[in-house]
Amino acid sequence: MALVNGWLPPTRNNFEFIMLCWNFYPLMGSLQWLTSWYSMGKTSTKSVFNIPGRVAWFTMEIPSILTIVYTMNQLAGKDGIANLPWQNKILASMYILHYVYRAVLFPFIQPSMSPIHVVVWASAITFQITNATCIGSWLAAYGPTTQAEWHAQGFSMLRFGIGLVTFGIGLSSNYLCDEELREIRRKEQRRQAKLADQGKKGVEKHYSVPNNGLFKYMLYPHYFMEWIEWLGFWIAGGWSCAPARAFLLAEFFAMLPRAVSGKKWYQEKFGEEKIKGKYAVIPGIW
């Protein structure tokens, strides 16, 4: 049963229209260059429209899993998902694996999470549903759905393997970067608890410059490694996998201005000397 007739899941014509629009998302992401407001990070503002961080994050990320599973189940041919080529199943599993971490595990293993504004929350839900619809539709119906179609598009086991390895490196590195940031918060929580035991009052928020691992070289390596992750997904899917390409570009143009803005915040907060030699997000370039 279609949730939105002709659109969720989409017909082929509607899929092509959604993809056409989705290719322009980088223009929307680039609008962040025009504002100093960092909507989900260190300069987020207090507002009556904020949603508690864990609740907001889970509910705005989980549609990615729900949408791709629903879309693929609805669009797969008469023999269903079970009859799709193994490439399609692995690519879908890669996508779901990422979001099991980002949507399900991430918000609940964070020591703390800042509130997220309802506009950011709604925008993220729109992003996730659109992206998962495009990728799920391509995997289930509008991309290659037989081995013959995969090979007609120049399928290579070597390329697929390189894509898998690249994706795995990006995902694991992204987790390790997140873990470094979590450890900073854990240390601060322990410090705050110690102050409380001594009858002293700590600060409401504490920030420090991460310096371990990839943080030695850049301030937002978790962004960079997420780009590597989705580059691997695109490599595995093949250069003709338009939804994977669109997803990578959407992430790049949405996250780059955040990282550059975040570096300015670090400079203002800690001084140039504290972050000397660190790039924002692209080593040797930016």
Automatic annotation (TrEMBL):
It comes from Pestalotiopsis fici (strain W106-1 / CGMCC3.15140). GO terms for biological process: steroid metabolic process. The keyword Membrane applies. This is 3-oxo-5-alpha-steroid 4-dehydrogenase C-terminal domain-containing protein. It is a multi-pass membrane protein. InterPro entries: 3-oxo-5-alpha-steroid_4-DH, 3-oxo-5_a-steroid_4-DH_C, SRD5A/TECR. Belongs to the steroid 5-alpha reductase family. The chain crosses the membrane at residues 15-34, 55-72, 92-109, 116-140, 160-177. One of its GO terms (cellular component) is membrane.
